[in-house]
Amino acid sequence: MFALILAPVQPALLAQLVQVQVTLTCSDGTEITDTLLVVDSAALAALQSAVEAMALYPAGLTCRLTQQLGESLGGLFAPLVAFAQSSGGNPVWNYTVGGGRAVISSRCSGEETNFGFSARVEPAFDGTQGQGQGTFNLTIPQCGSFNGSHLGTKVDCVHVNGSTANLGAVVTHATGVFADPLQYGFTENETRIGVLVIDSGVPGGTGDRIGWSNRAIESMCGLETDTDAPVDNGNVKVHQANP
């Protein structure tokens, strides 16, 4: 598992930024993915807030932001795979990134669930099954007799509409309450989930929301997820690329 060390970005620096090119590098312990982005100061602050929350409320996904020209905005592992950005990019991705915790498990009433996710899709393939990329993870530190329940999924469909994103994903790893046949009973590499996240646009994550469905239809791209809950701690960033 990769460690995540954050270097704070000075407010004065953020205020000076109009647009900056950064690389968002994420790892779920088995794969490392780089996403090249061009962001303004507000988007940069939101992304860093989400990355920090992944470290504070771990769910098996670690990310860092690295400013181009070599200045690190947090993290400790080198980019391995670069994805090209076209000349019209700001950015070329519809994407969503988030970390934190919320009460979103029906099997663990009142207990906080840690979440961490990073997902993207080229705008031309938004909502198209098999074209999305990313990871969506959940960890429930305490749930009745289950301790440290973890759910890992691979995102294969992403739909972004303004400040809302829906994800379709297949379960790759399930332990504890997620694997128990009398509870969620997820089957690895078979069960699908849907995800709904909402970015309020308010700094610090106030008003952000998250929800998920424990059984999903492949063709729906997470759109069947119609319940959500407030993000108690953390941040969600959703971005829809300019036409």
Could you give a short description of this structure?
With 243 residues, the protein is mainly β.
Give the helices and strands, then pairings.
Elements: H1 11-16, E1 20-27, E2 32-39, H2 41-56, E3 62-67, E4 94-102, E5 113-121, E6 133-143, E7 146-161, E8 164-174, E9 192-198, E10 209-213, E11 229-230, E12 233-239
The percent of residues in helical segments reads under 10%
Task: Count the DSSP helices.
Answer: 2
Characterize the overall form: globular
Radius of gyration: 17 Å
Distance between the termini: 38 Å
SSE run:
HEEHEEEEEEEEEE
Judged by helices, strands and strand pairing, the structural class is: mainly beta
> How many structural domains does the protein architecture include?
1
Give the strand tally. Answer: 12
What's the pLDDT, averaged over the residues? 84
Structural account:
This protein has helices at 11-16, 41-56, and strands spanning 20-27, 32-39, 62-67, 94-102, 113-121, 133-143, 146-161, 164-174, 192-198, 209-213, 229-230, 233-239. With 243 residues, the protein is mainly beta. The chain has a 9-stranded antiparallel beta sheet with strand order 11-10-9-8-7-6-5-4-12. It has a 3-stranded antiparallel beta sheet with strand order 2-1-3, with helices on one face. It is globular and about 50 Å long.
What distinguishing features does this structure have?
12 strands, 243 residues, 9% helix, 9-stranded antiparallel β-sheet, globular, 2 helices, mainly beta
